[in-house]
Structures are given as C-alpha cells and as structure tokens.
Amino acid sequence: MFKTIHLKTTERFQMVEILDEIKNYVAESGVRYGVVVIHVPHTTAGVTLNKNYDPVVQNDILTKLKDIVPKEDHYGHIEGNSDAHIKVSLIGSTETLIVDDGRIELGMFQSVFLCEFDGPKKRRINIKILSDK
Amino acid sequence: MFKTIHLKTTERFQMVEILDEIKNYVAESGVRYGVVVIHVPHTTAGVTLNKNYDPVVQNDILTKLKDIVPKEDHYGHIEGNSDAHIKVSLIGSTETLIVDDGRIELGMFQSVFLCEFDGPKKRRINIKILSDK
Amino acid sequence: MFKTIHLKTTERFQMVEILDEIKNYVAESGVRYGVVVIHVPHTTAGVTLNKNYDPVVQNDILTKLKDIVPKEDHYGHIEGNSDAHIKVSLIGSTETLIVDDGRIELGMFQSVFLCEFDGPKKRRINIKILSDK
After folding, report:
1. pTM score of the predicted model
2. Which domain covers residue C104, as residue numbers?
3. ipTM of the prediction
4. Using the beta-carbon criterion (under 8 Å), do C94 and B49 form an inter-chain contact?
5. Which of B35, B28, B4 is nearest to B105 (CA)?
6. Subunit contact C110:A85, Cβ cutoff 8 A
7. Hey, how many other C-beta atoms are within 10 angstroms of the C-beta on B89?
C-alpha cells in the first residue's frame, strides 16, 4: 500500500501538520498491525515528529534553525537555498511509525510535520504501509 | 510484535543506553530476519545511535547540543523547554534497525540511546519487530 | 534480503553517493513492493538524503556542519573525533526508503549519501530489503 499526498506550502519556513492524512490512509488500508514509512521526496523540505498542541513550539523550532543555519553565508550553491538543503539533512527526510491495533503509536501531543525550508512550493509526501502479516 | 518499555531518567540532559531491552525483545520474539522500529513517543526526548564504549562521548554530544540550542533564548513557548523540543527535531524520534540471523546489526561500539532533554521524567520507548517471513 | 556494501572514503569530511549500490541490490532482490532500510554501522559516519545534482550542495552541507560542530572544542573524548560523533547524531545513521513497482521512490534530484566525518576510512553500509508480500 503506497500513496502520495500533495500539499502547497504558503511560507518560506513552515511546519505543516500531516498526521490526519496519514491516519486516514492507515484507516483506509485496513492494516491493523505494521509500520508506516513517511518519505519527503524533496531536498529543501523534510519531516519531523514534534509537539502539535502549541504552534509556538513550531515557530521556536523554525526560528532556531534559521539561527543555526542562516539563509546567507559563504555558500557555494548559486540557487540561494543552500540553507534549506542543510536544514533538511539536520531534520531528516524519512520517519517510520508503528501501527498497533489500527492506531498509529504517537505521544499524546506528538504529531508529524512536513518542514518547509524553501517555500512556498507544491510538495509531495510518500506514505507506505507495511503490514505484519 | 509490539512492546513498550518504561524507564525513569534522572537528569535534565542524559543519554540512556537501551540496547539490552531491544536485544531481549528481539530474542523473546524469536524473529531471526527482519527489522526493529524504535519510537520515542515524547517531544522532549529522542533516540540516537552512537558510541557506547566511552561515556565521555555522550557527554560531549549533550554539551555541544546545549551550545547549539541554549536553554534560554528568545523562545515563545512558555513552558521553558523549547530547547528540548528543538533538540528532539535535530536528533530524531525514530530509528529502524536490521535483524539478521537473530542478531541486531550494529557496529562494534554502536549502541542505541534514549536522549533525555527535559528530565528527570518517566519515559516510554516503543519497539516494533517486523519479520521477513 | 540483507547485504553489506564496502567502500573507502578518501577525505576527513566527505559525502559519498551510494544510490547505485542500493538500486542494484533492489533490482537483484526482485522485490517490487516494500521498503529498504539503510544502516551505517559506524559512529563517526552517517547517512542522509540530499541533492546529488550539484556537488557544491554537499560541500555547503559539510562546511556548515564544521561551523556548527568544530573539530576543536572543550571535548572530553581523547580520541580527537568527538566532533564526528556529534555530527553523526545530528545527521542520523539510518534511513528507510520506499520501493514501489521495483523502483526506489526518491525526488528527481534526491539521492542517498554516506556522510564521512572522520575519514579517510573503510566503511560499511548495511542494506535490508523487506518485501510487502
């Protein structure tokens, strides 16, 4: 079971919660025990797990990433988005989640976010479900 | 096969080796070929693979993370642990390990650590084993 | 299906593209639907997904990582490669890729790189393929 979801980001830096789309696909698949692999097929956007309850946390994450990897620096890449590539390698492009009894195992306030570092852009997220059986 | 292990951290910043618990569960499962997914269901603690032979390495990792993401900064999140959330997105919340012939494939000094960034706290680690067959 | 590939890095800091080796193993395995787990069994080299089209991007990533985690600092580890261990925990040691219709799902310019942080060294990369069926 494999699906690609599509979304449009609206800011250069943005965390977009994508848990509902993943949950819906798990429900649709009927898989009760297994894993879900999330893959962002871009090199200037990544994926992370973090807190969804307070959007300020997402803002703090993005702000600190901008401090650590500023947009302007002595970069060689001429497209002007080297900072976005670097941030992706720090945050990562894949996550593997556990499905147990039809439910994605996550902490109470833990969710899944696409991390946009060079938006606004059209983005894809690949979702693969592997069943136990 | 899915299991949650529980532990208590004792420091605000701490790396706790969890390889024995994972190894025991793989042995118990009887799975000889497959993968193990490790998931930390918290947003202020993560998981990483690194060296277990010299505990000073763990200390160097935690100290440098504190330099990169200081506890106090212009954070918006009012709970006072934004730094912990940011560190989690840098380190990650999931790992997928390979099981071959009943053995978890790791380097000679490579091990699995829960990374506590906002302890001391009670923490859970989800372990899922997917068999090849 | 499990395989270890071997390579020699030639620099202290280097990103080595390993996608061809992974593609070849997927083709050889005959698996059309499933996932591929990539694991680097070292603690001073990691794995990341990023852009392969412009090698300058790889250079920008490595240069910025050297800024964030300098080789010399107040590290306790006496082997002189604490920076490499820290970089590995930031970049990560595992990736899980999706295989659909015999093809590894990646973005157009997205590829897989071993990240050498303490070379030149002989390195191994573990590749595990899990089939859907």
Report:
1. 0.97
2. 2-131
3. 0.96
4. yes
5. B35
6. no
7. 29
